[in-house]
């Protein structure tokens, strides 16, 4: 059963500062509890990650996933290349500058390949959405302060 959700947050930073934090894939486990490990496999010419391997623990399952990123000046999206527990996963951040702040919209669609009760899947997705927005905001502000 595929589920999708979206969530918005306003972050006191520029789109570039926010995308730089997202591009620091290998530090993701330090601010996103679902991520156990993250490793960049390949990069684009500008240094942004093209493919990354993640070990994710969610809904009681641990999964190794390879994802591929697409970057613009105001967005990043990724799609699943391979995984053990998930058939499909697509996610994106869309960044809209608002003065000295940025509105960040996170969209995610997940289709697990193993049966997970609907309530558990929705609760897990909700937690992931909160980390992807509020957790990202905290990390961006921490990086901006030099922490």
From TrEMBL:
SUPFAM superfamilies: Bet v1-like. InterPro entries: Polyketide_cyclase/dehydratase, START-like_dom_sf. It comes from the Bacteria. It holds the Pfam family Polyketide_cyc2. PANTHER family: COENZYME Q-BINDING PROTEIN COQ10 START DOMAIN-CONTAINING PROTEIN, CONSERVED PROTEIN TB16.3. This is Cyclase/dehydrase.
């Amino acid at each position: 059963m595929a589920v999708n959700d979206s969530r918005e947050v306003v972050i006191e930073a520029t789109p570039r500062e926010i995308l730089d934090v997202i591009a620091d894939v290998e530090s993701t486990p330090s601010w996103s509890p679902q991520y156990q490990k993250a490793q960049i496999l390949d990069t684009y010419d500008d240094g942004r990650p093209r493919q990354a391997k993640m070990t994710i623990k969610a809904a009681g399952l641990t999964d190794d996933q390879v994802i591929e990123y697409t970057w613009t000046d105001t967005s990043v999206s990724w799609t699943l290349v391979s995984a053990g527990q998930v058939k499909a996963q697509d996610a994106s951040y869309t960044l809209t500058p608002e003065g000295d702040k940025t509105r960040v919209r996170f969209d995610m669609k997940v289709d697990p390949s193993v049966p997970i009760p609907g309530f558990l899947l929705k609760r897990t997705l909700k937690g992931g959405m909160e980390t992807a927005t509020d957790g990202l905001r905290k990390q961006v502000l921490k990086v901006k302060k030099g922490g």
